[in-house]
Amino acid sequence: MDALSGAGPRRARCSLGAASPGARAAAAPWARFSAWLECVCVVTFDLELGQALELVYPSDFRLTDKEKSSICYLSFPDSHSGCLGDTQFSFRIRQCSGQKSPWRAEDRHYNSGAPTPLQREPAHYFGYVYFRQVKDSSMKRGYFQKSLVLVSRLPFVRLFQALLSLIAPEYFDKSAPCLEAVCSEIDEWPAPVPGQTLNLPVMGVVLQVHIPSRVDKPEYGPPKPCSHENLLPAPVILTSVHELDLFRCFQPVLTHVQTLWELMLLGEPLVVLAPSPATSSEMVLALISCLQPLKFCCDYRPYFTIHDSEFKEFTTRTQAPPNVVLGVTNPFFIKTLQHWPHILRVGEPKMAGDLPKQVKLKKPSRLKTLDAKPGLYTAYSAHLHRDKALLKRLLKGLQKKKPWDTQTALLRRHLLELTQSFIIPLEHYMASLMPLQKNITPWKTPPQIRPFRQDDFLRSLEHAGPQLTCILKGDWLGLYRRFFKSPHFDGWYRQRHKEMAQKLEALHLEAICEANIETWMKDKSEVEVVDLVLKLREKLVQAQGHQLPVKEATLQRAQLYIETVIGSLPKDLQAVLCPP
Hints:
Pfam families: DENN. The chain has helices at about 25, 30-35, 65-75, 105-115, 155-175, 175-185, 245-250, 255-265, 275-290, 310-315, 330-335, 390-400, 405-430, 455-465, 475-485, 485-515, 515-520, 525-545, 550-565, 570-575, and strands at about 40-45, 50-55, 85-95, 125-135, 145-150, 195-200, 205-210, 235, 270-275, 300, 325-330, 340-345, 360, 375-380.
């Protein structure tokens, strides 16, 4: 057993039993497997050691002792949850510094086409957990307690929960051979490509999923089955790889959805105290999904315990609370995080009947006891007025017993339109800062993107503000002013500025390729010509690495220009620029 005693990474194995250092090298390189998962872990409860890592597969995947410890503690519900039977939840941990795996070309290709919130995480691992706790008289403690954990950099919670539902029950019955077979099947899957619908066979079932693309239009129904394949057995169609049932998650807080949306938009520190890891992780993931298509730029932990390596960092009172959304189940956090400005305490979600009792807004000073009632404990006052029409429609849907996915679609559409109404004026203003294409000439450095001036933007809202697309009234100006101070404005601005700078470079490359290069070279010195070659090569490398949005024809012409220019130089310079 690989316990938490500081043992180093496991070596490769021929099977999941006996060690064999060269096995993985001799077998498959796991390239396709690692496009979806980093590794699979099995965590068990040891009487002497507590939670312990029983297995990592592929067995030569390197986890630090700190990462192993985090995975072990976060893979089990804490003692306050009392989870009997099977339960699923998720967590997110920071990857240890200095241990980052190299960023592969496939990762960059996926991220270039994926919506920003669904891009592969460079510095965090997601853990998707299937935990089983059942009475077992053969065990010393009287219970069988074990977790199967999928570790990935992809935020595909729905897909990996569905995968665990197939794998885990079988694994708990048949153990290691089943797991090895499943990993081999995953290693045969095609890589996730944004915009494609894929068929993923596993354990006699075919999961059909659509990988979202940044050019996809929002859809609320299931993806259409692939018409060009007659699959037997018929595929199980997942309506989404990542979207949760928002209506079920938000049932107890529907009257405060807009307040919570504002808190997420502003990157405010928030604690979600829930009765179980399943409820806590789903609520945290639902909250951060409120901002889509805007990327959530703050840290978030769907499930967090007192054993986490960041516990001291997040609970210190010597500085302001960090911009983190924490999901916890231990009431101890009420005392430990009492200085945090926003605490949401919720009960178990209900699946049927009338709308459950809504949590009330309460002052943080009332949150003093461990048995505090459910509520949103905050002194924050929302900038926008509540959408009463939305709540009425949701209540009417409950009364008429409309399908839950219909209710979720209504709620998701409302939040999407709210976020888009907020972001569109920012996008329009940002686009106005881009230099005109007529000012981009081939032989001069491209003009600079003009600076973002907050006062100019706020003045533009009078005739081009969110009121054009959103009926909600309120203090939009005040909300934008607070947004400018948040990590989300910084993240959004940096991303948009980067994209615009790349577009500018691409337009400049196109202008060079459309110009007559031989005419330009006539009166130029060798130094100027060599400088042009080096700059063109640099742009070509950027473009080929999917960092510049240019057409293939432009790349081919740029390569031809480089060859033409080098051919005009003396032989000694040609040898320097094109060594054999």
